[in-house]
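Table S2 (text version). Query chain:
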Amino acid sequence: MAATLIDGKALAAKLKGEVRARAEALPRKPGLAVVLVGDDPASRVYVTSKRKDCEECGFYSEEYALPAETTQKELLDLVAGLNGREEIDGILVQLPLPGGLDEREVLLAIDPAKDVDCFHPYNVGQLTIGAPVFQPCTPGGVMEMLRAYGVDPAGKRCVVLGRSNIVGKPMALLLLHAHGTVAVCHSRTPDLKELAASADILVSAVGKAGLVTADMVKEGAVVIDVAMNRNEAGRLCGDVRFEEAAERAAYITPVPGGVGPMTRAMLMKNTLTAAMLHQGVR
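Corresponding structure-token output:
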């Protein structure tokens, strides 16, 4: 079996086109503020890409590039100011923050109605009870991909590798809300290989190149590779050994070009949602 490639780039372009069309109908443009502290190269790439996404979607955007020496108070004061500005619908503080800054306190300071990353405990709680205001960007992007390719999690065994607050846990919740039977695996799971091989839908978000081998992929499974790693040759790759897994899977995402573009597109969708709520538009 040769797997069908799930084209995240094409799906993201389509979603951003839909977002732009809806944004143009609003009384004012959606506004997104992105805060970057320090000079982490990967974070700089992400922030630049988000600015381009805003341009594509017709959003108003602001970027705050702060030095690594920024104090907790200075960062919290900036967030408080952005919370109070009517033209800013979404606030994104790029993680990780430099050492010495309290990420939890910063995320708690963001107005939940502007928390377009869906990291605030209020929004995590809404997600847990099945009434999310925003979709966590990466897990939400995965669900959009499954829908686009006609994959319904209902009644299927879904296995998530990784239990992070950003991907693993919310991914499991979204699959559960879609009536999947969900198992979450992590570093202390003794039978990880067997559980993975039982999955109809396998989502890997561990961050370990080559973790998922062919014998961990069920014949006909849907394989979603969320991770972004570099192999020994320095090339971008995911957790999944793509070539061998593609021989067994029915659907599979590439790295790059799979989940990453959809994560960015979901941020735009969340910012649109926030703008609609702030402007009283349904």
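Notes on Table S2: Residues 241 and 258 are 14 Å apart (CA to CA). The longest strand covers residues 31-37.
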